[in-house]
Design goal:
Elements: H1 5-21, H2 32-35, H3 38-57, H4 63-83, H5 91-107, H6 112-118
Helix pairs in contact: 1-3, 3-4
Amino acid sequence: MAKRPSKHWRGAVAEEARKLAASTITVEDALMADLYPVSLLDATDEALGGFESALGTLHSPSDDEVVATVQQVVLDLNAINDQHDGAGYETGEREELCQYIDQALTDRGIDVPALTARYGLARYEITDEWRDW
């Protein structure tokens, strides 16, 4: 089952907060809350939730329907990244988001390698056409 990257990021923020409370790290060493502000986490969860819901409505979807669903979540994530001055999703986060999208599609029974091949793409290029993050 695809796990939202934002859940992992929330866990990192919470773990850092525990360390701060226990004085095992200093405020100067605490970066997670700045990297993952609540606004980013909440907006990302909303976008991924919408993607999951949209996937749930697809029954025997055409390739175009699947690709349109991927396009929508990528555009939503672009907007979120823009709202965070283009720094909401760095390299690691981009990779996690792309893996999540791939896994969510796979979980719905979509053969991602076959789908992307029909579009002349490699498996992990499914988001590239629209992705700004």
